[in-house]
Amino acid sequence: MLEINNLFASVADKPILKGLSLAINPGEIHAIMGPNGAGKSTTGYVLGGRPGYEVTGGSVSFDGQDLLALDPHERAAAGLFLGFQYPVEIPGVSFVQFLREAANAQRKMRGEEPLSGGAFLKLAKEQAALLRMDMDMLKRPVNVGFSGGEKKRAEMVQMGILDPRLAILDETDSGLDIDALRICGEGINAIMRRPDKAVLLITHYQRLLDYVKPDFVHVLANGRIVRTGGPELAHQLEEQGYEAVVQEGAA
């Protein structure tokens, strides 16, 4: 599904990714962990096509397409979803209208019929219930007045409505209390744990992985993956810290 080969990328002329390679197949959940400044968020932003992140080498293929040749909205329509560490607020724009416009814009690019008002509201109610959100919240301006946990849950509702093939979730656990963490984890599993979908979780901590159990855990350091293992690697990182595990992998 996703093939990253020897990827180099810079921000403001500063090299961040330095030969990142990673393959993700349908049905798999991958987690990327690593210290601050390792390039975790940069990986997500480069894959999503965020402006200001310059690819200086390597390639990325998504479902056989050159992902780097696509504009951000084309990547989204192709089935890629990027969840942000800090979802933005959009005053004056109803969340439910924002979600409907986003869903129908992607459907149009794929040559599909737009969702009617009734069909969309039914889908939105189902996804909101999955994340235990009241529909009244989605009638408010996008993320305005939402707590950190509510913003993340609303983003999971958006993911459920857009129904992507690959979800890249950047520190979804950031700012979540225990209950919100469990709800978001259950939502990710319900929406994305399917044979034709895949997830890339970007996180500092092992706690989200208690709910969304990964098939593979990768340690990112100095812009490249230095070690790969199973779920047990996340527990090792939690116990020993990044420095010890990175040094052990280099030994």
Summary keywords:
single chain, 251 residues, alpha/beta, Rossmann fold, 6-stranded mixed beta sheet, 4-stranded antiparallel beta sheet, 9 helices, 12 strands, 39% helix, globular, ABC_transporter-like_ATP-bd
Unreliable stretches (pLDDT < 50, length at least 5) are none
Mean pLDDT: 90
CATH superfamily: P-loop containing nucleotide triphosphate hydrolases
- Written as H for each helix and E for each strand, in order along the chain, the element string is EEEHEEHEEHHHEHEHEEEHH
Word description of this protein:
By secondary structure, the chain is of the alpha/beta class. The chain has one domain (2-250): P-loop containing nucleotide triphosphate hydrolases (Rossmann fold), CATH 3.40.50.300. 39% of the residues lie in helices and 28% in strands. It has nine helices and twelve strands. The protein has helices at residues 40-48, 72-77, 95-109, 117-130, 135-138, 148-162, 178-192, 231-240, 242-250, and strands at 2-11, 14-24, 29-33, 53-62, 65-66, 80-83, 90-94, 141-142, 166-170, 198-202, 216-221, 224-229. The protein has a six-stranded mixed β-sheet, sandwiched between helices. It has a four-stranded antiparallel β-sheet with strand order 2-1-4-5. Strands 7-8 form a two-stranded antiparallel sheet. A hairpin with a 2-residue loop joins strand 11 and strand 12. The longest helix has 15 residues, at 95-109. The two termini are 32 Å apart.
In a few lines, what is going on in this structure?
The protein has nine helices and twelve strands.
